[in-house]
Design a protein that fits this description.
The chain is of the alpha+beta class and about 500 residues long. The chain is built from eleven helices and 20 strands. Strand 5 and strand 6 form a beta hairpin. The longest helix has 26 residues.
Length: about 500
């Protein structure tokens, strides 16, 4: 039985994620730079752009692919473990960040030192910016709560109630900026890597895989399997599945890995949402009467599966570049490529990986949550720092309405793409670990080699040993900062 299936049967939402965090082992014993000639998937629709990464990312806050309960980074001496992907979106919307649009009806009170409080209609606090601490606090529509500090060197710390927090540290590789995020969740520590990328006047964090497979494995995952396979996920009796049964139903059979990875992604997202709902009191939709078809339609799931194939092809191309000691451009890997596709009439789909507040066409604030689906159908104007996307699927209630248009900041959009790629990478590990079991087809011998660490990951500094303490300390400082700034910004409090 897969670790994923075991976790899905767990009745405690905290244990669901904790069990998942110990999933499949990745061997990273050596860096293999030998070019293989095995069949590879089709190239992405847009050719890779030349160039290398510059800058250090400052995009949206998100959880990411989990790994085991110790400091797990690619080394020449031992394995690396990775677990489920969480997050992908949900930036702390700084009051000084022009890319984030203020919804209609929100009011702002500033203090003499540059701090500010934004309140929603009715008086509820939406954002607090503490200029002295460099801290941004965001209260989400669904009840979530995030605290972020970004420093001058682009290191940062994120606390988010009921979800993984992280500490991000920059480092250099071949003169380019990278960042390692050390995540902490219920005693589990894991990390992900990102290119720092200067884009349209902001810095984005573009996901950089910590390891790459051989081309033959990407080809096996990209192309149709010999026959469709039936797979028993084992989550029929899980609380999260009962809660979201109105929204999601798995495929009855899988003609290729992209369909399996689609269900893997959505089920992982909904488990994360259920855990946050239980632990942090987040509310992410309003379930309709039981018995109708799933809100996440086959047509939308097909678009997700197609996007998964696009991202598999992209990663295969990157893997071959890395094996040849070439730098991978974050412009080619990130949303720059996707916006270029949109300008040529090619649509891309994004899956929301964490709670995120956006605005609709009327400038009214609405919520998105884990597993909601957006489509980028038209490219924004040159230089724009936001993009308009169509909501393909959401969960009702105060969430953004399906078929409506919402405005999303570029850093949030980048984190959504990161989320898809992070989930795909963990799903590929699970497929390799479970191949030939539970109905899954066996991986061909040419595709069975373990992945090798990416060049930039192999030289990265270790996980931050003080991440847990730093994240917890920031949570406490956030409570204090909010009290102080609210008091100073109150009428007569400091003006």
């Amino acid at each position: 039985m897969s670790n994923l299936s075991k976790a899905m049967r767990t009745t405690s939402s905290a244990l669901i994620l904790a069990a998942l965090l110990s999933a499949s082992v990745l061997a990273g014993a050596s860096t293999d730079t030998t070019k293989k000639t095995a069949a590879a998937p089709a190239k992405p629709t847009t050719a890779a752009k030349p160039g290398a990464s510059t800058g250090t990312g400052t995009g949206a806050a998100h959880g990411a692919g989990a790994s085991g309960p110790s400091a797990n980074h690619p080394t020449a001496n031992g394995p690396t473990t990775h677990g489920p992907v969480t997050g992908g979106g949900g930036a702390i919307h700084s009051t000084s960040t022009a890319a984030h649009i203020t919804p209609r009806g929100v009011t702002e009170r500033r203090t003499p030192n540059g701090s500010a409080v934004l309140t929603r209609p009715g008086g509820g606090v939406r954002d607090v910016h503490d200029a002295g601490r460099g801290m941004d606090i965001h209260h989400e529509l669904n009840g979530g709560h995030r605290v972020m500090v970004e420093r001058a060197d682009h290191s940062r710390t994120l606390f988010q109630r009921g979800r993984p927090g992280y500490v991000q540290r920059p480092y250099a590789f071949r003169g380019h900026d990278f960042a390692r995020r050390t995540y902490f969740y219920h005693g589990h520590v894991y990390s992900h890597f990102y290119h720092g990328y200067a884009y349209r006047g902001m810095y984005l964090n573009v996901y950089a895989p910590g390891f790459y497979y051989r081309p033959a494995y990407y080809g096996w995952a990209y192309n149709p399997w010999v026959t469709p396979v039936h797979y028993q996920w084992g989550f029929a009796a899980s609380p999260w599945y009962g809660y979201y049964g109105y929204y999601f139903a798995p495929y009855p059979a899988y003609p290729s890995a992209s369909y399996w990875l689609t269900d893997y992604m959505i089920s992982s997202d909904l488990q994360q949402a259920y855990a946050a709902h239980t632990e942090a009191g987040e509310v992410d939709g309003s379930a309709p009467a039981v018995g109708g078809p799933a809100e996440l339609t086959p047509e939308v799931k097909q678009q997700i599966a197609d996007e998964v194939k696009n991202q598999l092809a992209l990663e295969n191309q990157e893997a071959q570049q890395d094996a040849q000691q070439q730098d991978v451009s974050p412009a080619s890997s990130g949303i720059d490529r996707m916006l270029s596709d949109a300008a040529q009439g090619r649509q891309h789909v994004f899956v929301v990986g964490a709670a995120l507040d956006v605005v609709d066409a009327s400038q009214t604030e609405c919520a998105l949550s884990d597993g909601d689906v957006l489509a980028l159908q038209t490219a924004p104007p040159a230089g724009a720092t936001t993009a308009n996307l169509v909501v393909l699927a959401s969960k009702g209630g105060q969430e953004c309405q399906p078929r409506g248009t919402v405005t999303v900041a570029m850093d949030d959009l980048q984190e959504m793409q990161n989320h898809i790629r992070e989930t795909i990478d963990h799903g590929l590990q699970e497929l390799q670990a479970q191949q030939g079991k539970g109905g899954l087809p066996a991986v061909p011998p040419s595709a069975q080699a373990q992945p090798a660490p990416a060049q930039y990951a192999a030289i990265a500094p270790p996980d931050d040993p003080n991440a847990a303490a730093e994240i917890q300390q920031q949570a406490q400082q956030g409570d204090q900062a909010e009290k102080e700034v609210n008091a100073e910004a109150a009428p007569g409090g400091g003006f």
